[in-house]
Every structure is written in structure tokens, then in C-alpha cells.
Amino acid sequence: MRPAGPRAAAVAALLHQEQGGYANLVLDAELDRSGLTGRDRAFAGAVFYTTVEKQAALDYILGRFLPKGVEKLDPPVRAILRSGLAQARFMQVPPSAAVNEAVKLTRAYGKASAAGLVNAVLRKSCSFDLDTAAFADETQRLMVLGCAGRDVAAFLRQYYPREALDILTAPADGGRTALRVNPLKTDPESLTAALAAEGAAAAPGLVPGSLLAGFAGSPAGTEAFRRGLYHVEGQASQLAALCLGAKPGDTVLDLCAAPGGKTLTIAQEMGDRGRLVSCDVTEKRVGLIRAAAARMGLGCIETRCNDAAVYDPALPAADRVLADVPCSGLGILNKKPDIRYKTLDDGRRRELLATQSAILDCAARYLKPGGRLVYSTCTIHPEENQEQVRAFLARQPGFRVEQPGAALPAGMETGPYGMLSVPGRTGMDGFFICVMRRDG
After folding, report:
1. Residues recognised as catalytic
2. Where does residue 339 rank: exposed (0-12), middle (13-18), buried (19+ CB within 10 A)?
3. Is 287 labelled a binding residue?
4. Which NCBIfam families match (predicted)?
5. Segments in the chain below pLDDT 50
């Protein structure tokens, strides 16, 4: 019989996470199996994500008291130690409670012989002073204090040496949930009042039409959400959609649209008048867009299953094209903590860059003369951003970079090949946006 409870569910998800897979999918599957609801489900999720994000620091501290290191432990014992220490050091759980529950869980997993080890190591680890730690080099220091894998730490030291730690520790959107107000149904002031009545405090964000809110539960759990008064979307992502400059009556393509946040913002900017074809590569992901459009009551959105890297002559010629391409995700480390520990493999990187390049070339073919193309990513890697645009312009001399009409938050870096938001500078996610026009 499997151990029960929120801590057990978190440990089970961590064991699956070690075998690969996206953290959110692994956790959702385990929580569904556990049958947990309400606060227990939320606590299990918090333990899981905190453990995943803080793994480098957790392993460093635990390793001080494990002669053979963390990796030599049985997987359940390793997951129990990591999650127990995560609770005590990063979740304000009293150390005594974290240790006692970890020991109970060790026995429940049939590892009674390791219960003494878990007890002793956690008690010492909970009180370890990280300020006294001696690191082998600056990369290890960044890995532990910033909680990242070696490849990501090395990347940040190479490209952002003075602000690497800030990038790893800056909270996404100020630690609150970014919302896009649906102007077809409400306005920021009215939505703020409606959310306050439901117990969620909200304030204006950095991007016009955005709010930053704090929710006790899920942002999708309010009556305002069900009524389609807002959707959840990072501020930088909203800005990319606004930079498209879509107008009522336009024909617009959103080539890599799921889960649909930018599509919703674009449709609202169009006043729900015109034709917006929103595409993604699998039917399951297209279904997310379709469901979001229905909830928001937007009728100008057409959904289509389409591979953005392959030209489709059935798609219409467009006044505006958004290519928010697949990327390494190095700008959203605080939203997707498993990315912190990605291996930046050269072979995979070449494949990714080739895919981005193919999507850009297809996007160019769909655009009408005089039309606007926006290329965007949620990474801060120059090869995927400025260098990708530079190469595209060399292949496509009929395109030129132009300044967007949208107002830019303070701290945005602008240059001849686009605009960059770096976490810690702007208060937003790491994001790249390049606006280009095709000569008429």
C-alpha cells in the first residue's frame, strides 16, 4: 500500500521527476492519483516545486552530512531528505515537524533501516549556516546560492556575469500573478474591485491593461475568471502580443499559440473583429486555445492544428504574424524550476535553433507586403534572440526591424535586433521581442 498524505504525494512526484518529464505534468498526474484536494493538494504542490527549484542548495547542504553523497542514496530516501529539508529551510515549516514527518515517511516507504540516517542528517542540515560555506569556484557558488544546474550557471556567468544571481533569484512578476484584463467585458478598476470582493488583492502592472494579483487559491478559481473578465498571462508575454499592433478587421496568424494567452490578448486588441487564426502543433494543445477562447467569449478566433516550421499554403495571407517560438526557456526560470537544471546540450541546441529559423521563414511567407511580424521568445540566450534575427534579416532582405507602438517598461534593453527583458532589470520575465515590417 502506497503512503498517503500531501508529503507522500510530493515524494512520489519527485521520484517520477527523476525519471524525466515536465514537472507540471508529473505533479498533476500524481496529485490526481492521490485524491488530495484543497489545502492538502496545494501543500503537496508547494513541497514538490520548492524541492525541484532548490535542489542544488538542498543537495549541497545534505552532502555536508552524507559521506557518500546524495546520489548514492536509495531514491525514496533521497526524495524524502530533499523534501524534508525544503520544508524546513524554504517553506517556514518548523524543523521539528519537517524532521518527524520525514522519519515517518521513511518508515512508510519500507525504509525503516534508513530512519535513523534521515533523522540525524535532517537535524544537522536544518541548522547548517550556508553563509559559512566554502565553494570550489564561482560556478558552484552560483549553483548553490542561485539554485541551478551547472550548465545554466555557466551560461549565466558567460553572458550575464554581474547579474547572474539576480536573474536566478528575481521573482517573476514581483512574486504575484500577472493578469490581462478583458477590455471587452470590464476595465482594470472594475476588475480590481471584483477580485477584492473575492478576496484577491490586485494592483496595476507594468504593462497597460495588466494587473498583478495575489490569490489564496488558484487564479482560475474565481467567479471573475469564469465570467471571462481576465486571463492569466505574464506581463512580458502580454507586451509581445501588444507589439503586434493588431487592429479590428485585420487578418492575424498566431503560429505557436498554446495555451493561448497571446491569442486572447490579440483578439481583444482587435475588438473581436477580423480573423485570428491560432495554431499549435498538437490537437491537445489546440484544445487549450479553443477552451480559453470560449470562456472569454471571443468569436474571431479560429483554431488549427499546424506545424509552424512547415509552410502551409492553406493558411491565409496575414496583416500581422506572431511567431512566439519554442525556446530554451532561460527567461522563466522562476516559473518553470525544472529548466534550472537543464543540460544545454549542443546537439539539441542546434535542433532548436534550426526549428526557430524554419518558423521565422514560414512566418515571413504568410505576411502581406507592409505587414508586421513579431518574433518572440521567453529566453535570454543571444543565439536564440538577436543572432536569430540577424541571420533572418540576412536571408530576408525585404524585412526591417522597427520600433513597436507599445510603451516599454523601464529596464528593457533595446538594440538593432530587438528588445530584451532580463529578470531583475524590468520586474518581468526574461523575454525577447523583435518587431519587423515587410516592405510594401
Report:
1. 378
2. buried
3. no
4. PRK14902.1 (NF011494)
5. none
